[in-house]
Write a structure and sequence with these properties.
Distance between the termini: 31 Å
CATH topology: Four Helix Bundle (Hemerythrin (Met), subunit A)
Strand content: under 5%
């Protein structure tokens, strides 16, 4: 239950910060990412964490968003669910996206894993901002159209 409350608060904070001049990165709300509600919630929560100065937590939530998006793509493209790295590679080999997108997603996965294992010094705010931009673009270009 606590996780649901936490996610709900993060989504609300992200929605309230839309149009705020205090943030360096534009905030996307769940409604900005049509058709990918859970992924959108994860990305909104990641953005909220970033806005609060908690970029390590943002990296973790962004990684969760990536995993959810990959699961959805795998389901829509008849690809077996497996590890995140395998899903990224399998979807690329099936032609769902090109090798550049595959490389960006792999970099996001590495950053997520560093955050998950507590390697805080290797997770910079700039890297997390780039990760969120890449994931937002990925979801809009590849997931919401599926």
């Amino acid at each position: 239950m606590w996780m649901d409350i936490s996610r709900g608060m993060a989504v609300l904070k992200a929605a309230w910060s839309v149009g705020s001049t205090d943030t360096a990165v534009d905030t996307m709300t769940v409604s900005d990412i049509g058709g990918t509600e859970l992924t959108g919630e994860f990305l909104a929560e990641a953005q909220a964490y970033l806005n609060m100065g908690r970029h390590q937590s943002a990296a973790i939530m962004a990684g969760d968003a990536l995993e959810e998006a990959l699961r959805r793509l795998c389901s829509n493209n008849s690809v077996a669910l497996s590890t995140v790295e395998d899903m990224i590679a399998d979807l690329a080999s099936k032609g769902v996206y090109d090798s550049l997108v595959e490389q960006q997603l792999s970099q996001c996965t590495v950053l997520h894993e560093k955050a998950m294992t507590g390697l805080w010094s290797e997770v910079s705010k700039n890297d997390v901002e780039s990760m969120l931009r890449d994931l937002h673009a990925f979801v809009v270009d590849h997931v919401s159209s599926n």
